Write a sequence for this structure.
């Protein structure tokens, strides 16, 4: 989408949000456009992969990665947990702080936080000559910091959580040529932001940087084909969660149903549907009457709620689902039961019905809300089971360990390894207090 079309769409979204009848008609129309664009991309890449005989397998990614690293003379030195030195290109904006705690469980971390240096994501997004200059100037500061850290103590891998909006393929290539260590990028939004706006020298999404990274971590299984078609080396992994931040709070459960998240797309229509059906829903976040709340207030809301509502849809498209960070953040608190859209990717990571609850339509959403509000003990058991699952399998450290194993950086990790025990002094998960 061109920049002017994006701005027109944003303006129409704002107008529709003020007039509910208009929004009821406008959002489905926008959803059709989003779905059609997604399907064209999905089907085009499926055909490319079919013609080239490309199929995603993690073992094949590991093999291709080993060959790629070998061609530049890199051989990973196997480390133990606590010895791996990470260079992290992660701006400390929004919830991104949660990513660092898990990295420190691996070993020392050198940060490159462009936000702390005065650069703003919004400035890059504006594009034009100024946005391009800002990004190029910021990118030029990365390599000196990395090389200085590498001289002090050898860096084992470079971990990036960014898109083409923030980082260029040229910088990634220069890192690999001059330092040689593996580079890994994570994207948790490929279905929506794969291409993105033209930034002056490449597009803002992942498509133009996919080939540059040694390994591309995606939270959408279907996007693995997209990376393969673009010459990348994908690894499917969902997001994780930070147990230090997302722990139970001793607060009364005095909210029936809550939703924490920005108001956009189909979300207002869905909330309006529940309100018409007599469901008491409290909403928090940008665009809702109660506005944005702090991280601590958000966690308390999760624990105060009998039911924490999730929407797996993307933008205006309610039917186009993606695994989201909240799918692990909410269950990690052990508060109210988590009820969200059914997604086959998400169903790989939780026992649906016993650890989280999922709906396929608004009618199912309504029925499940009524069912669990009438059975608070059952809802509480599901929430406690979800936190236990998160502590066993879904911490950010679990994800980083898997990535490092694929990179060949880790010795065999003992089966009893539990990163939660290294950062959490609290006992096994308990339900929030009544």
């Amino acid at each position: 989408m061109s920049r002017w079309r994006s701005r027109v769409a944003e303006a129409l979204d704002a107008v529709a949000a003020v007039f509910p009848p208009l929004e009821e008609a406008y959002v489905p129309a926008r959803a059709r456009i989003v779905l059609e664009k997604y399907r064209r991309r999905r089907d085009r890449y499926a055909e490319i992969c079919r013609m080239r005989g490309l199929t995603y397998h993690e073992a094949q990614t590991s093999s291709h990665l080993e060959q790629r690293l070998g061609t530049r003379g890199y051989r990973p030195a196997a480390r133990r947990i606590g010895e791996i030195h990470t260079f992290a290109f992660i701006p400390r904006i929004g919830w991104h702080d949660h990513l660092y705690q898990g990295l420190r469980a691996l070993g020392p971390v050198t940060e490159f936080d462009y936000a702390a240096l005065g650069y703003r994501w919004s400035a890059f997004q504006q594009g034009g000559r100024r946005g391009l200059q800002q990004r190029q100037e910021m990118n030029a500061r990365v390599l000196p910091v990395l090389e200085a850290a590498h001289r002090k103590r050898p860096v084992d891998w470079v971990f990036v959580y960014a898109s083409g909006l923030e980082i260029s393929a040229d910088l990634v290539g220069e890192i690999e040529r001059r330092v040689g260590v593996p580079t890994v990028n994570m994207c948790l939004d490929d279905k929506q932001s794969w291409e993105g706006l033209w930034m002056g020298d490449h597009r803002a999404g992942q498509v133009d940087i996919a080939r540059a990274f040694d390994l591309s971590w995606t939270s959408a299984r279907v996007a693995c084909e997209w990376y393969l078609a673009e010459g990348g080396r994908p690894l499917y992994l969902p997001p994780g969660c930070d147990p230090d931040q997302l722990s139970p709070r001793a607060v009364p459960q005095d909210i029936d149903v809550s939703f924490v998240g920005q108001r956009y797309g189909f979300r207002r229509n869905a909330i309006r549907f529940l309100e018409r059906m007599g469901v008491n829903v409290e909403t928090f976040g940008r665009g809702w009457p109660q506005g944005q709340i702090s991280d601590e207030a958000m966690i308390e809301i999760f624990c105060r709620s009998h039911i924490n509502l999730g929407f797996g849809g993307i933008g205006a498209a309610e039917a186009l689902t993606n695994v989201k960070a909240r799918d692990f953040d909410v269950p990690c608190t052990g508060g109210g039961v988590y009820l969200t859209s059914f997604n086959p990717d998400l169903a790989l990571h939780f026992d649906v019905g016993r650890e989280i609850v999922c709906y396929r339509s608004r009618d199912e959403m309504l029925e499940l809300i009524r069912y669990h509000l009438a059975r608070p003990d059952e809802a509480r058991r599901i929430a406690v089971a979800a936190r236990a699952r998160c502590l066993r399998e879904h911490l950010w450290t679990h994800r980083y360990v898997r990535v490092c194993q694929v990179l060949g950086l880790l010795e065999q990790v003992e089966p009893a390894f539990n990163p939660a025990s290294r950062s959490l002094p609290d006992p096994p998960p308990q339900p929030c207090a009544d």
In short: The chain has two domains: 54-236, 255-393. Residues 54-236 form a domain with the Rossmann fold fold (CATH 3.40.50).
